[in-house]
Predict the structure.
Amino acid sequence: MDIKQIKTDSDKTTESLNTEEQQLVNEHFKLLVHNAIDFLEKSVNYFENDLKVSIICLCSAFELFLKARIIKIDWKLIFKEQKNATIENFINK
């Protein structure tokens, strides 16, 4: 699969969402980013007192930033099986 095919598939996914669904995906994106920033701030706060907790918070922040990016690209990519990728499953799970 080449880059053009990936871009085309991504465009189809975005176009298939109605406005309400796009707002839900954007809201989840924002929530993930806010949570990631919280973990990042905690990582900085714990840095001098508890390095182990600081590293765990940093890794959690990094993971959430990646998930947010994946959702922004194509929310269906977070599903293990693409056949289960419905907006209802995305909201409930």
In short: The CA atoms of residues 35 and 66 lie 12 Å apart. The helical segments are 3-16, 19-46, 51-73, 87-92.
